[in-house]
């Protein structure tokens, strides 16, 4: 008989026929048993669960998530419990890692897993936020969830075993439940608010419940109500609470949303006294400083966020705040101030993060190609305010020897080239096709009068065009025509400087549109 620890995966469901199969696919191989508690499905949820060999029980829904989860725990026979929902998936690359946590966890009572929240089920999507949650824990009779909503088990484990130790793993769970159509269909915000308000009435104004109600109010757009709840919760929450750092971030966010930027900054600075390695707060500060016209301070805050890097795994964070999003913001400010090479460098640095979106890769290539044609723009910065500089930009015809190299001056591959190699073959093909569409209308403005529209070889596409794709193509056509008009303006001395500046900046904002059109053609 094997001594390998057994894993029971437990979940509660209702009308999850659409989402459940992918969830069960992700955990069926790593689980020794799957226990599903159904709270009243009227679709094919129960049949789907049984097809995967799950033990299914139907229970009455009593407006209490903790009690429903505990019904599943009562039936579990494994040594460990994995708690997961139908709108979640265990990341397939991490199944071996999850199993290793069980095999080598003699000193741990549970593991925090990294729950990544996505707004798309696309495999290439980037999570909007990452939240460490205790989802893997030992199966002991005394360990039961508490709370009608945002139920917890870590406090229970610590009460039962004060000496308990938790581990923080890199193992990831993909959560899709924040997608707008799912939130709307399930009426999640209103449901959560009702449960939280009832909990506050019956269990008292506990800080964790106040905090979660504030978050729901923020999602609903009730900023003043949310801020009042956050201030109340903050006053009674110890800095050691697992959600305390996030509460400060949300408080600052709420203050900024109603224009109280100075107070938002003060909240962030206060939080950094307790959480000096929480780089999210520096990223937030940069935006509030920028809103106050403090660009120099904002740049310093972003650079501090980059210096710290992504926060340790026990913090809630948002994807890329201390990496590509900070670099991209610095690049946008450099573009605004017409510091082209600095913008190029920041975009390249952003691409060192493998999660950096394709729009950044497209943007840096567009910028690099344009700077080849207008080489004096690379090192030119206006001495006067924007659009008032007197220096002219001379246009140089690029030779084949001056074409953009895939390596930098030290001989190492550019981050943009390394980033591309990490993408799938299909994605690389799509991006190369999109680059062809993004070529400037002309290489030399004096030829603009006769330059034809660039033609790219289209990849195979399905017959017919959706209204959305037709609109995208029409919009992109307008952008190309605008590029042509700017090229003509550029041929005249008096408008040359302005035309070049706009041609360098404007196309970067159109990258997402270009990619959407190309993707639509392939799909």
UniProtKB/TrEMBL annotation:
Span list, region Disordered: 445-468
Protein name in UniProt: Glycosyltransferase involved in cell wall bisynthesis
Signal peptide per UniProt: none
Species of provenance: Paenibacillus aquistagni
InterPro entries given in the database record: Glyco_trans_2-like (IPR001173), Nucleotide-diphossugar_trans (IPR029044), TPR-like_helical_dom_sf (IPR011990), TPR_rpt (IPR019734)
Keyword Nucleotide-binding assigned: no
MF annotations from Gene Ontology: transferase activity
Residues in Glycosyltransferase 2-like domain copies: 8-93
Classification via SUPFAM superfamilies: Nucleotide-diphospho-sugar transferases, TPR-like
